[in-house]
Each structure stands twice: as structure tokens, then as C-alpha cells.
UniProtKB/TrEMBL annotation:
<comment type="subunit">
    <text>Forms a ternary complex with ligand-binding receptor subunit IL18R1 and signaling receptor subunit IL18RAP at the plasma membrane. Mature IL18 first binds to IL18R1 forming a low affinity binary complex, which then interacts with IL18RAP to form a high affinity ternary complex that signals inside the cell. Interacts with cargo receptor TMED10; the interaction mediates the translocation from the cytoplasm into the ERGIC (endoplasmic reticulum-Golgi intermediate compartment) and thereby secretion.</text>
</comment>
<keyword id="KW-0963">Cytoplasm</keyword>
<keyword id="KW-0964">Secreted</keyword>
<dbReference type="GO" id="GO:0001819">
    <property type="term" value="P:positive regulation of cytokine production"/>
</dbReference>
<dbReference type="GO" id="GO:0005615">
    <property type="term" value="C:extracellular space"/>
</dbReference>
<dbReference type="InterPro" id="IPR015529">
    <property type="entry name" value="IL-18"/>
</dbReference>
<protein>
    <recommendedName>
        <fullName>Interleukin-18</fullName>
    </recommendedName>
</protein>
<comment type="similarity">
    <text>Belongs to the IL-1 family.</text>
</comment>
<dbReference type="GO" id="GO:0019221">
    <property type="term" value="P:cytokine-mediated signaling pathway"/>
</dbReference>
<dbReference type="GO" id="GO:0005125">
    <property type="term" value="F:cytokine activity"/>
</dbReference>
<keyword id="KW-0202">Cytokine</keyword>
<dbReference type="InterPro" id="IPR008996">
    <property type="entry name" value="IL1/FGF"/>
</dbReference>
<dbReference type="Pfam" id="PF00340">
    <property type="entry name" value="IL1"/>
</dbReference>
<dbReference type="GO" id="GO:0006955">
    <property type="term" value="P:immune response"/>
</dbReference>
<dbReference type="GO" id="GO:0071222">
    <property type="term" value="P:cellular response to lipopolysaccharide"/>
</dbReference>
<dbReference type="GO" id="GO:0006954">
    <property type="term" value="P:inflammatory response"/>
</dbReference>
<dbReference type="GO" id="GO:0005737">
    <property type="term" value="C:cytoplasm"/>
</dbReference>
Length: 193
């Protein structure tokens, strides 16, 4: 038996095979790899410059912007639902998905490959309750650094080393996916609180 997050899971070891691979007996009681929605948090997302992430589906864009308190209270496209998932496989961080309400429609954030480049998109619809395997809507949430307990980075589950970040484009700070050049690198454009 293995104890993970408070619950016991039955594991039936059969043998050590070639190259010391561990084989398990077939057991109907074992779970397959999956993500299951556990809870949702309602938050605004800020970058290192204290700007809020604002989604504009009509322009197919999300960018960090300076927003007044008044705009934030009444603002559409700024209040995110962060859906936390539990998983049957160990992961580098907490699996999360993002959704947002803009006017009367729901949108979810996802990663997509376009012209050989990974990009962030917002698609109309809801995030699923259960995800049977890999998904372009899952990001792994980890602490930005060990000394910033309120700042995080979000890694794309489909592309290891690709994180949500911002990139300056004219006067905009657009939401993008950015590759870390080194695992120990600290890139402030990936810091989200």
C-alpha cells in the first residue's frame, strides 16, 4: 500500500524485470492516470509590475494592464477561476486550469501549437471536471522562488520548460508561453501573483 495525500492506494508488485523495471499485476482497483477537479479559487492575476491580466476574447488576446480599483470592481475579463485538480501521478506542481467569464460567456485558457510555436489561447467553453490524460488546459503551479510564497509560475503540461509569461509588444505586455533556458533561471516575466 502507498499513502498519497491522505488516502491509501493498493499497489500489487509482481516482479523486477530486465533493467530493474518494476512490473505490477493487473488489478481492477488501480486507477488510470487522470486529473480530477478538486476545488476552484477566484483570483485576479498580477505580474511583477502589479498589472492585472485582462482577457479580450474579441481580440483573441490577453495582456497585463494598469487597472484602477474602480475598473477592477466592475471589470469584465479580469476575475479568473483557477481550477485545482488532483492527479493520480506525481507532478512538478499543483495541476491547475484557468477559466474566465467575459460578459455572458465562459472561456478557458489553453496551450496550442501554431506554426511550430506554442501559444496561449482562450477558447469558449468550460474546463472539464475530469481529464483522462494529457491536456492542453493543464498548467503546473509552483512557487516562483522559495522566498516568494505569494508568487507563482505556471508550466504548460504539454511542453516541459514552457511557462506563462509576458512579453512587451509596443505598449502591451502580452501573455505568452516562454521557454526557460536553464532550470535554475529566475525570469521575472514569469512571476505571477
Amino acid at each position: 500500500r502507498v499513502k498519497m495525500s491522505g488516502e491509501e492506494i493498493l499497489m500489487c508488485a509482481v516482479q523486477l524485470g530486465e533493467n530493474f523495471c518494476l512490473y505490477f499485476a493487473d488489478d481492477d482497483g488501480l486507477e488510470c492516470d487522470a486529473f480530477c477537479k478538486e476545488k476552484s479559487l477566484h483570483r485576479v492575476l498580477r505580474n511583477v509590475n502589479s498589472q492585472l491580466l485582462v482577457v479580450r476574447p474579441d481580440l483573441n488576446m490577453a495582456a497585463f494592464e494598469d487597472v484602477t480599483d474602480q475598473e477592477m470592481k466592475s471589470g469584465s475579463g479580469m476575475h479568473f477561476n483557477i481550477h485545482c485538480y488532483k492527479t493520480t501521478t506525481p507532478s512538478v506542481g499543483v495541476p491547475v486550469a484557468f477559466s474566465i467569464q467575459v460578459e455572458d460567456k465562459s472561456y478557458y485558457m489553453c496551450c496550442e501549437k501554431e506554426c511550430g510555436k506554442m501559444i496561449v489561447r482562450f477558447r469558449e467553453g468550460e474546463v472539464p471536471e475530469e481529464i483522462p490524460g494529457e491536456s492542453n488546459v493543464i498548467f503546473f503551479k509552483t512557487m516562483f522562488t522559495s522566498c516568494s510564497s505569494r508568487a507563482f509560475k505556471f508550466e504548460c503540461s504539454l511542453e516541459q520548460g514552457m511557462f506563462l509569461a509576458f512579453e512587451e509588444e509596443g505598449c502591451l505586455r502580452k501573455l505568452i508561453l516562454k521557454k526557460l533556458s536553464r532550470e535554475d533561471e529566475v525570469d521575472e516575466t514569469m512571476k505571477i501573483s
